[in-house]
Amino acid sequence: MSTSTDELAAHDSYLTGAEGTVIEVVEEGLILDRTPFYVRGGGQPGDTGVIRWDGGEVAVTDTYRRRGKVIHVVSEPRMIDPRTPIETAIDWDRRYTIMRTHTALHALSGVVWRDYGAKVTGGDMKEGTARMDFELEGISREFGREVEGRLNQELVKGYPAEVLWMARAEALADPDLIRTKVNLIPAWIEEIRVIDIVGLDRQADGGTHVRSTLEVGLVRVTKTESKGRANKRMRIALV
After folding, report:
1. Structure letter (DSSP) for residue 140
2. DSSP characters over 56-78
3. 3-16 burial string, b = 16+ CB within 10 Å, else e?
């Protein structure tokens, strides 16, 4: 039996559950043949939720990749045997909030790139809050308020967010597609997933997003801070 996992979230961010089979039991958790759980990476946390089978249920507290395998972290993985048919269900409220947060970050990146020409130097997100670092010479509270206003003006326009797949060579040939200061795409990835917030932002990304910026709602820039020369941070929160 194959030990690779079909990661369904890459193709459908709104899929809340799926049927599948346990293909391996390891010390940290369970490996499934297919999963709707997002695997931690790119600054987005891994999904939580439940795995159910005939006669049992276990909570998933994290989802991450180890040595190429997708691990669903559970407290007692030995409760279930390999080849067991299961049903999965993600914590949708948490995931949807993270999706809104992630799309807000991409919109922020698009605004700062378009209006100030600054690349991203880092980022991270949690449920409803996030931070993004930019290659800027300076930053202030006034700048944060200015960016907040421009960002919210764009979000309410309802830009659609679409998923595209591109050959690696084609994607890397587009200088605007990789918005980070350093290219973080692993060399082994041959087909690159692109999130296109049509008309606002277009960049390589593996995370989950809402279908329209209208779903994000309004965003506050809660803090601006300097993290060194030409590395300035903005923290945001969903309103």
Report:
1. -
2. EEEEE-EEEEETTEEEEE-S-GG
3. eebebbbeeebebe
142-187 residue pLDDT tens: 999 999 999 999 999 999 999 999 888 787 777 667 655 445 566 6
Number of helical (H) and strand (E) elements in the chain, helices listed first: 3, 16
Distance CA 197, CA 186 (A): 23
- Taken in order 227, 181, 143, 157, the sign of the CA dihedral is negative
Residue 116, SS3 per DSSP: helix
Report how far apart, in Å, the C-alpha atoms of 61 and of each of 51, 74, 122, 163, 215 are.
Answer: 11, 6, 25, 27, 26
Strand order across the 29-32 sheet: 56-60, 49-53, 85-90, 17-25, 29-32, 69-73, 62-66
Q: Which residue has the tokens 């269900």?
A: 89
* Residue corresponding to tokens 């509270």: 141
Highest average pLDDT, of 80-89, 168-177, 185-194, comes from 80-89
Give the Cα separation of 87 and 215 in Å (integer). Answer: 28
| Distance, CA of 127 to CA of 110 (rounded, Å) | 21
Q: Could you report the per-residue pLDDT of 12-60, keeping only the tens digit for each? A: 999 999 999 999 999 999 999 999 999 999 899 999 999 999 989 999 9
DSSP conformational letter for 47 = P
CB within 8 A of 221, min separation 6: which ones? 144, 145, 147, 148, 151, 234, 235, 236
